[in-house]
Amino acid sequence: MKILFIGDIFGRPGRTIVKDRLPELRKQHAIDLVIANCENAAAGFGITPALAEELFDLGIDVMTTGNHVWDKREIMEYFQMADGNPHSPARRLLRPSNFSPGLPGWGVYEGQTNGTNYAVMNLQGRVFMGSSDDPFRHVDKLLDQTKSKVIFIDFHAEASSEKVAFGWYLDGRATALVGTHTHIPTADATVLPKGTAYITDVGMTGPYDSVIGVKKELVIEKFLSGMPSRFEAATGDVRLCAVVVECNDQTGRASKIDQVILK
Fold it and tell me: Is 29 a catalytic residue?
């Protein structure tokens, strides 16, 4: 089984390059399952119901998010629309599972592709991030509740140490643990000794002539002045950052992870 994970889709530039390049990626790598982090798809901040549907229509099977998931308030109604309807597309849009209990949405999606059951889990780190439940103990509960062998986890976290520790903690218990949030692709893609594919950060799918997606002059001015400023999405040097994970669909163990960076 081959799984494609696309890193943080940022604004219109990110959505456009996914639209342009996803078909060839699926064909070139014989992809069975496409997952993407979409929390920055709406001009760099949040995701709207219309954009979620647009990305699903491009062929993305499951989407994850993170700390920006609530930036567009209407996404709450989108989550609520799927209450009691497991077949709603909104059910395939995740927010971190270790957020406070009772919030709209879900942190896990279990589906099937080509006869193989799989689970996608979305968790958020705690170091330099907003308040959330302990991801280490929370993921133990999620793993106890799933019967799927193929388990793909998006860990949306700031600190590389927390991501690396989480990878080792899950080695042999998940097919893949990929980091998102920092928008900078790291060069440490590997399969850990017990069969879990790992990378500290997949990187952003969006404009790299920027400061993590935002027009660089706006961010530089904020650092210089210390004053609040309105951030706008940049447009130049657009890249698609992703990983392709190959695994055994019977055991869930990963055999290979390849980093993909396209312009």
Answer: no
Give per-residue pLDDT as tens, 165-201: 999 999 999 999 999 999 999 999 999 999 999 999 9
Q: What is the pTM of this model?
A: 0.97
List the CATH number of the domain containing 50: 3.60.21.10
pLDDT band at 77 (very low <50, low <70, confident <90, very high): very high
The tokens for 72 are 């567009």
Domains: count for the chain: 1
In contact, 212 and 40? CB cutoff 8 Å: no
- Please identify which of the residues 29, 68, 87, 183 carries the catalytic annotation: 68
Domain that holds residue 179: 2-262
